[in-house]
Amino acid sequence: PGESSGSFALESALDELAEKLKIDPLQLRLESYAEQDPIEQHPFSSKSLKACYELGAARFGWSASKRPAPPGMLLGRGMATAAYPGNFAPAQARARLNPDGTVLVESGMIEVGNGAYTVMAQIAADALGLPPEKVRFDLGDSTLPEAPITAGSISSASVGSAVLMAARALREKIDALGGLEKARQSAPLEGEGKAAPGEERKKLTMLGHGAQFAEVLVDPDFGTVRVARLVGAFACGRVLNARTARSQLMGGMVWGIGMALHEHAVYDERLGRIMSRDLADYHVPSNKDVMEVEPYFVEEEDAQVDPAGVKGMGEIGICGVAAAIANAVFNATGKRIRTLPITPDKLL
Among residues 11, 215, 300, 315, which one is catalytic? Predict the structure, then answer.
C-alpha cells in the first residue's frame, strides 16, 4: 500500500532528525505525539499509539543496551511508527436459521487468504449465541448480498459489520418466538444486515496504529543485511480472531522485509518494459531471510470506526517495517539509505 512507501520516507526523516538532535528516536516520537489529527484538526476515534510504543519497546528491549554483535558483523537497531486508515465501505449480509438449528450467513465478498470464512462465521456465532460449528459462511457469488472489494484492509470492518447486524436481526426473530428450539419449528427464518459509513467519518480521523522495532546484522565485507529480529505492536480496534489476525500482521511484517531488502521492479529504460516479471527475477523473502518476527496486540475499543469496532489488519503490518530496517542499518553502519531495496552495492 502507499502508506508503506510514505512511512519509509517520513520515518527515515524522523530518525535522521533524532540523530541530528542527539535524542532517542522513540523519545522524539513521544515528544512529537499528536493528540488530534494535525492536518484535518479532527479528534481520533481512538488512538493507542503510545501503548504500542510502550509494548513494542518492552518486548524488543529497546531501553536495554545493544547485545554484542557476532564476530565480523555489525549490529544495529531501529524503529518506526505504523499507521493505516480504518477503512469502511457499504456492505450487506443475510443470516438464515435452518430447521436443524444451523445458520447460513451469506455475503458477496471474496476470500483471498484473509480468513473471511473463519471470522465471519465467528461474528455471527457470537451475536447469535451459537457455537461456531453451527454457523456456515458462504461468499464469492454475485447473487449474494452486495459487498465491497477485498482490498484496502476493508473486508472485516465492512462485511463484518453487516454480518453482525444480520445476525442481530435474526436473533431478534428467534427471541420473539421464544428461543432457538421454538424458532426452529418456524424455520427458515432470515435476518438481513446493512452497514455503511455515517456522518462520524467527516468529524473523526480513524486509523490503526503500530510501532515497529528491528535489529539487523550487517556484514561489512560483503554488504549483506539480515533482519535478526522484528517486533511489532499494533492497535487495530476489536481483534476478531487472535490467530488469524496474528498471521495477517506477521505476513505484513515479512512483506516489509521484502520491501526493505529484496523487492525491486526493474524497467527497461528504453522501452519501459518490466524486466523483473516473475519470481525468478523479482526477489521476495524466503524462509532463511525470516528469523524472528513477533507481532503483538494492544487492546483497543473503538465504537465509532464501524459497528463491529474493527480496523483492518491486512496491510498495517508492512507499514513502518522498511523504515525500521533502514534506520537499524544506519545505526549499524552510519550509512543513511534513502532508496529501496537496501542492496550490498549501497553499503560498500
Answer: 315
